[in-house]
Amino acid sequence: MKLLCSTLGKATWILTVTVAIVAAVLYYFDDTSPSKYSSMAEDMKTLEEKFRGQNKSCFILGASGETGKVLLQELLERNIFSKITLIGRRQLSFEDKACENLIQEVVDFEKLDDYAAAFKGHDVGYCCLGTTRAKAGADGFVRVDHDYVLKSAELAKAGGCSQFHLESSRGADKKSSFLYLKVKGQVEAEIEALGFDRLAIYRPGVLLVDRQESRPGEWLARKFFSAFSAVCSNSMSISIQAVAKAMVSNTLLQPEQKAEILENKDITSLGKVNGK
What we know:
By secondary structure, the protein is an alpha/beta fold. The protein has helices spanning 2-29, 44-52, 66-78, 133-158, 179-192, 216-227, 229-232, 240-251, 264-271; strands spanning 57-61, 83-88, 103-106, 124-127, 163-167, 198-203, 206-208, 237-239, 259-263. It is globular, with a radius of gyration of 20 Å. The N and C termini lie far apart (57 Å).
C-alpha cells in the first residue's frame, strides 16, 4: 500500500510539473492577435432571413460524429435551408420532431461512384467526416480522411454544389512529417483544386467534447485544455459548439476570396456570432 501511494504521489508530482511547463509554453506561443471576424459588423439575423429566402439545400457528411451532430442541430435551430440531406454509411434515428423532414442517403463509401445521385442537387456541402489512426489504423485513416472526403467533394462538385465547408485540423500541412497533419493538408489542397465557387476550410484546435467512445489520450488532452482555456482558448482548443456555429454563420457570408482557411482564433470569433 505504501509503495502504491508513493508511486501515485510521484506520478501526480510529475503530471503537475508537466502541466505547468506545457501551460507556460502555450502561453508564450499563444496567438493573441485579433481575428478578422472580431469586429464583424454584419447583422446575422438579417443575413439569415435573406439566405432563407433563397430556398437552398445542403448535405452533411459525418452527421453521426461529434461535430456533425452539433452542426445538424445548429442548422435545424437556425432553419436557413429548405432541405437538409444526411449522407452516411447507415441510417440514423432521431427522437426530435425537427428531424422528421431530414432526407437520409445511405452509401457505401468504398463504392461512392455508385451513389453519385446522393450528391446531386445540393447548394452547400458540409464535411465533418473523419476517424483516427488509433481507431482505424494508418491505412484506414487515410482511406476515410483522404479518399472518402476527396471523392465526396468531387461528386458534390459534379452534382452542382457551389459551396463546400470542410472540417480539417490545426496544423494541417501537406508537407508535414506527421501522417495526420499531412493527410489533412493534402486533402485540403486537392479539394481546393476542384474549384468550388466557395470553399471554407476550418482548422480547429483540440475539440472540447466528451465523446461517447473511450479515447484516453484525447480525454486527457481535453481535460488539460479545458483547465487552461483562459490561457489558450484563442488558438489551441475550442468547443464543438463553437465550430458548428462558425460553420453555419460563415455560410451566410460572402468573402472576397473563393477559398479561405479559418484558423482556431477565427472559428472562435465567428462561433460567437449568432442570429437566432
